[in-house]
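We give the entry.
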Amino acid sequence: MLELVATATIICALVVYAARHFRSRSGAFAFDSSARHEDYLEPGDLPCPWCRAPTREADRACPSCARVFGSPVPG
């Protein structure tokens, strides 16, 4: 019984830690609930990989930073 309580406590602590960690890291993400993002994004759209601005599936370049999608990352 003690092992079960200890395991449940550890799992709960990890879930709380993960929730706080991801909440603090999420800035302007595609799943943001602001009206500006909801008007622009459609289901399945992803943010720009460089500046995290919202993009559409039909975009060839980011509307915010103008980086071309599919271009190599400078190294």
Notes: The mean pLDDT is 76.
